[in-house]
Design brief:
heterodimer, B: mainly alpha, 15 helices, globular
Chain lengths: 78, 317
């Protein structure tokens, strides 16, 4: 699984990355986590607000900081 | 009740004299802070609850549905007032709108109103200026977006947008967190908003309180009055390089108005500080050519100056 956190480096984006890391760790998944800072690449996903979460090139979350429980939920239901 | 508490706290607990400048400053500070934070807690909860049901993607689709022929500027501007804004999300938003086929002028209407009118600014206005000024401010902020957007929409500015941003397919975020809306989540979002701005508000109220306590009434009437024609443009031009969150400026503006600065001049200053900022300009520079950025700033600046004059002529505060 390949997870990308999209965000220009603001506080919220960092929090989403931390929460995602925590969720992945708790689930014991092996994933490739990448943080995209480049604005051109961020907007190419067609999102309206940062931060956003992309799993295997599919946007699953945009414009909000989900907590780790919520992210675990999402990853489980993929 | 808050007033009594504040007076008890300042004059009885701290034993400051009612006539002293420090006493009245502290009284203002305590009273305004408590009042505003109570209001903010209520309003941010309400707005977070509303937003939980109204994500940006849905808003974009409603604006773009073309069902509101002629009213899309107004609609975009009102949505700009409802949605939260930080300059770091202005680009995804801009690109998201434009990429989905929302006309540029309508997108600008959204972009202009968004930082100017939001629940935090309105709460501060309501707490400090009363309901009448709050409504006037909200309506003029929304009108500013509509008028600015319409002017920009007429100007054939499409060619100044970087081509690669014009054809991005908007994402369908269908899950968005398998969202179950609970009070706990709404409350956390509300306090997230307050957390981000409380320091600006406290500093703003503190400066405002000092002005209330130490500057004599009518002090500014001499040189910043409505009679001097240049006061509005000067206030606006001074404000553009200043960047502040609306929440920090409003208490200061209120104190200045109380000491004789005309309301129109003060509001123009505030709108320019909040609506025209360097960080936002730097962000937008990455998707549009410099020329368009300058046209955008010039249009908004001129509209704000005109609004300032209108207030000074029509309103005796």
């Amino acid at each position: 699984m390949k997870i990308k956190v999209l965000g220009s480096g603001c506080v919220n984006c960092m929090r989403l990355e931390e929460n995602t890391l925590a969720a992945v760790k708790e689930l014991g998944l092996t994933v490739e986590l990448e943080h995209i800072y480049d604005m051109a690449e961020i907007v190419s996903y067609g999102i309206m607000a940062t931060p956003a979460l992309v799993v295997d090139e599919k946007v699953i979350l945009a414009g909000k900081v989900a907590d780790s429980a919520e992210i675990k939920d999402i990853l489980n239901n993929l | 009740m808050i007033e009594q508490f504040s007076q008890y706290f300042v004059y009885d607990v701290f034993k400051l004299s009612r006539q002293s400048q420090i006493g009245s400053s502290l009284d203002f500070f305590v009273y305004d802070s408590i009042k505003i934070f109570l209001l903010l807690i209520i309003v941010t909860h309400l707005m977070s609850w509303l937003r939980a049901y109204l994500p940006l993607e849905k808003i974009r689709d409603i604006i773009n549905s073309k069902k509101f022929y002629g009213l899309d500027y107004l609609l975009a501007s009102i949505f700009g007032a409802i949605t939260p804004f930080c300059s770091c999300s202005s680009i995804p938003l801009f690109v998201g709108f434009v990429g989905a086929g929302v006309p540029l002028g309508v997108t600008f209407a959204f972009l202009i109103t968004s930082p100017l009118v939001n629940e935090v600014a309105l709460t501060l206005f309501a707490g400090l200026f009363g309901l009448k000024v709050t409504i006037i401010y909200a309506v003029s902020g929304i009108m500013l977006g509509v008028i600015g957007g319409m002017i920009l929409g007429r100007l054939k500015i499409e060619k100044y947008i970087d081509n690669k941003f014009l054809n991005i397919t908007p994402a369908q975020v269908d899950k968005n967190g398998t969202r179950i809306i609970t009070f706990k989540k709404i409350s956390r979002e509300a306090f997230d908003i307050i957390n981000k701005i409380y320091i600006y508000i406290l500093v703003g109220i503190a400066i405002g309180a000092l002005i209330h306590g130490y500057v004599p009434t009518g002090y500014f009437e001499g040189y910043l009055s409505g009679q001097t024609w240049w006061s509005v443009p000067v206030a606006v031009i001074l404000a553009v390089p200043l960047y502040s969150n609306a929440s920090g400026v409003i208490p200061i503006i209120q104190a200045l108005v109380a000491k004789g600065v005309p309301l129109g001049t003060a509001l123009a200053f505030m709108m320019a500080t909040v609506g025209l900022s360097l960080p936002e300009a730097l962000m937008l520079k990455r998707v549009m050519k410099l020329k368009l950025l300058l046209i955008f700033f010039a249009t908004v600046t001129i509209s704000i100056i005109i609004l300032g004059y209108l207030f000074n002529i029509n309103m005796i505060y």
